[in-house]
Amino acid sequence: TYTNQYWLLPTEFRNYSYIGFACDRGLSTLAIDWVGVGLSSRPANASDVLYGTNAAVVSQLARHLKATSILPVVKPFKKVIGIGHSGGSVLLNFGAIAEGPKSPFDGLILTGELIIEPGALNPFPTISARDDTPFHWGGLDPDYVTTSNRSVRISNTPDPPSFSPRMLIFYNFTKDVGSVSTFLQAGLNSLTTHYTRHIAKVVGSENQLFCVGTGRCNDITALTAAERVLWPEARSFEVVVAQRSGHDLNLDFFANGPFNTFVDFVEYFTGF
Hints:
Elements: H1 18-24, H2 51-67, E1 81-85, H3 87-99, E2 107-111, E3 126-128, H4 129-132, H5 134-137, E4 144-147, H6 151-155, H7 166-174, E5 178-179, H8 180-185, E6 198-204, H9 220-228, E7 236-242, H10 256-270
Parallel strand pairs: 1-2, 2-6, 6-7
Antiparallel strand pairs: 3-4, 4-5
């Protein structure tokens, strides 16, 4: 239920802005909102907000960036790398499953996402958005949902906490909506894909969904082998466990560590 602000936090949170970090290093970076979220159009029926729909839109945008100049002085981009977080990673994964070698992305960086093991997923608590904030979302389809005010505590709860208390204010002020449909489709990212470009996965060691208490993130070699099974044709595949970071890597005190990792992968994938 984040908007694109997850990647571009306001000025006072400059140290947490991946967009700022990447642009300072000469990488053109664009953050977008899903269909139904933030500044994007919101269908009347939440059931119309699906991973397939969003994956098609994102792929169309990537193709446009490669084919057309977005500004008179800017040439079309030769390579485009997709970076997603949590549900955004599932979206890119879904697109890779659907398009395989025809995908317009030259590499994917999937953060906050690993294979969903049966019975292992601990989903964030959700509530119908119109019940949560009637004055703002009272007219929405009840299948548009949002997270409770304590959700960020679930995603980032190492002891001591890895995020500033001010992040709770930011989170609760900027949280948006998702759809029940996408929650139901989350397991689709556990299908084999024939994507042929580069893949990297980055997850925090304190991720309460995938790492803490599971033992999955202790042996990087074993984790990489297990995750790669679904990407048999990828040109390269790597898993990084960011130490001391929680689920929401960009919102942690240690955000610059993952940011450096993202940039390193972008430069490697593009031959920069």
